[in-house]
Amino acid sequence: MLSPADARTIVERLVEQARSAGATAADALLIGGRSSSVSVRMGELEDVHRSEADDIALRVFVGQRSASVSSSDRGDDALAELVGRAIAMAREAPEDPFAGLAPPELLLRGEPPAMDGFDPVEPDPAALRARALAAEGSALGQARVTNSSGASASASANTVALATSGGFSGAYRSTGHSCSVTVIAGEGGAMQRDYGWHSARFLDDLEDPEAIGARAGQRAAARLDPVKLKPGRMPVFFEPRVAGSLLGHFAAAITGSAIARQSSFLIGKLGQRIFAPGVRIHDDPLRPRGLRSRSFDGEGLPVHAMDLVADGVLTTWLADSAAARQLGIAPTGHAVRSGGGSPGAGPSNLWLAAGAKSREELLASVPRAILVTELIGQGVNGVTGDYSRGASGFLVEGGEIGAAVSEITIASNLLDMFASLEPASDLQHRRGIDSPTLLVPDMTVASA
């Protein structure tokens, strides 16, 4: 895998070549990495995978015309061909009045901030296999678990380097370790399945595989013998594993491109209270060991922690440079890109802050409700905010979690859900988007 210094040299040279060949502006991104994974099922090895790859993307501008190309070959001849092809394509592209790099005066100057995101430990295949087997063995040992869909363990490392003709150059490294298992409980037509999963930047932070497996098995067994539910309106709890999806819908709705296209249900809501008083949604790209931490954004702008929602009030859009020009605002340092193509915008380590009530207190705050533990389908309208998704979970009565429910639909509108939701105090940072248990006090619940 390339070192940050070597990756940075490649993208800097590529930008220089593009400028020498006639581009008025250019940026280059390199994402190089390695990954290893081992999969098992029912105690037997199923697959061992190892890959190493570099993805190099070049974006060039000829006036207000632009083009993006990418390659996995970093040889001199291949990069020279990449430059020629990009400029030829840009000259044939239509003009875009909003196209261009980030404003030079806003670029990060000096060395990017250090990230605590690189673990030098790289487990060998034998260690990955042992971890996957331990997770599966623990899951299969749980009561009423009858079969396994498999378990896996993986390790990865990435180098990200970006250079722009505006004067930015930077690189950073990150790693990841993960373990997952999916098992089945019950037999015949009454079978239910569930999973356990965890991912961390550092191996020392990864949850024990036995705990991951036990959770998967217990959750699968708990879903057996679901009861039929009478349709109607009732409170709905979203457990942390699925509550983050509501933050995902929120983040998509505040991207500059959605606002510029007039395709968001949050148009006109900037500076207004859209959540209940006290609700806070925070984004922190520099959180130590965060799964989405980064030293700079996808255009070379500095990044910093900020509240996207403070005391229930929407404080900002998430805008890359092109969307910012359309909206007449400054880019916000949230540009993201994965390779070829122009940057978009999105959050980094995003979370909804913990509330005052414990999970138990929140569950006991309503006489009867549904606790959703899995969501199915994509029934969300980003323009209107209408929300309708398949779900499964459990009845909650008198604060106690009871019988399983499955094949239900929950529906409302995201504006109404955001305005009324209440968070519990059980926030944990385990994903890129994190949330405590959430209560939405009024939704339509029906059998699917």
From TrEMBL:
<dbReference type="InterPro" id="IPR035068">
    <property type="entry name" value="TldD/PmbA_N"/>
</dbReference>
<dbReference type="InterPro" id="IPR047657">
    <property type="entry name" value="PmbA"/>
</dbReference>
<comment type="similarity">
    <text>Belongs to the peptidase U62 family.</text>
</comment>
<dbReference type="Pfam" id="PF19290">
    <property type="entry name" value="PmbA_TldD_2nd"/>
</dbReference>
<protein>
    <submittedName>
        <fullName>TldD/PmbA family protein</fullName>
    </submittedName>
</protein>
<dbReference type="GO" id="GO:0005829">
    <property type="term" value="C:cytosol"/>
</dbReference>
<dbReference type="GO" id="GO:0006508">
    <property type="term" value="P:proteolysis"/>
</dbReference>
<feature type="domain" description="Metalloprotease TldD/E central">
    <location>
        <begin position="119"/>
        <end position="224"/>
    </location>
</feature>
<dbReference type="Pfam" id="PF19289">
    <property type="entry name" value="PmbA_TldD_3rd"/>
</dbReference>
<dbReference type="InterPro" id="IPR045569">
    <property type="entry name" value="Metalloprtase-TldD/E_C"/>
</dbReference>
<feature type="domain" description="Metalloprotease TldD/E N-terminal">
    <location>
        <begin position="26"/>
        <end position="90"/>
    </location>
</feature>
<dbReference type="GO" id="GO:0008237">
    <property type="term" value="F:metallopeptidase activity"/>
</dbReference>
<dbReference type="InterPro" id="IPR002510">
    <property type="entry name" value="Metalloprtase-TldD/E_N"/>
</dbReference>
<dbReference type="InterPro" id="IPR045570">
    <property type="entry name" value="Metalloprtase-TldD/E_cen_dom"/>
</dbReference>
<dbReference type="InterPro" id="IPR036059">
    <property type="entry name" value="TldD/PmbA_sf"/>
</dbReference>
<feature type="domain" description="Metalloprotease TldD/E C-terminal">
    <location>
        <begin position="231"/>
        <end position="446"/>
    </location>
</feature>
<dbReference type="Pfam" id="PF01523">
    <property type="entry name" value="PmbA_TldD_1st"/>
</dbReference>
